[in-house]
Amino acid sequence: MLKISSIKNESETTLSFSFEKDCCGELALEISLFAEFLRERSLGGEVIEIVACFASLFVEFDVLKINSEELVREIQSNLSEFRLLESSEEERELLELPVYYHPEVAPDLEWLASEKNMTVDEVVRIHNEGIYVVSSLGFAPGFAYLSGLDSRLAVPRFDAPERVARGSLGIAEEQTAVYPNESPGGWVILGNCPVTLFDVDASPITPFKVGMKVRFVAISRGKFLAEGGEL
Hints:
This protein is α+β, with helices and mostly antiparallel strands. The chain has helices at about 25-40, 70-85, 110-115, 120-130, 220-225; strands at about 5-10, 15-20, 45-50, 55-60, 95-100, 130-135, 145, 160-165, 170, 175-180, 185, 190, 215-220. It is built from 5 helices and 13 strands. The strands form 3 sheets. It has a 7-stranded mixed beta sheet with strand order 5-13-6-7-10-9-12.
């Protein structure tokens, strides 16, 4: 359960809240979920910005509407409500994404299989078996950091970023993610997802939400192309 371990005045208008929990990975996710919880409530317009980090939360507030002591009480009260909701929460929403796992769209797939002393099919199976959780959104619009990668596939990101195609599915350390658009990237690429993951004209603009569960489903070349994938 999320617990505040310390509170610090960063400036006249910003407080930082440090948290503790048994698992660091879960801690980052819970803080992100709590930040979303606070944003939805807006705290009467008293809060200007909320920034979630791996083990802390930064809250910028309007000193003309609330002082730091009152804000601390508001945050603590909301945290108590958040804990109750989390403890009674139903199964989180599951998003399934199709992926074409093949060297023609995944330049690092065969390299990873060799590096891990596995076959390509074993790499794909292990990645498909995972149920991942959106721990945070960032880097680029529509880019979701997904925690829960099997440690058997864990590998550092490459030192030198290269141009990565739209829809590329990558892994780095114990996370996985899909690049929503073409961009520089250093993650190890295992496949490509034909689904549009960021569209400014859509509502919502991305299907990802912090706390959502994600599962990847392997598809054939034909289905990949039929669903809009590009080689």
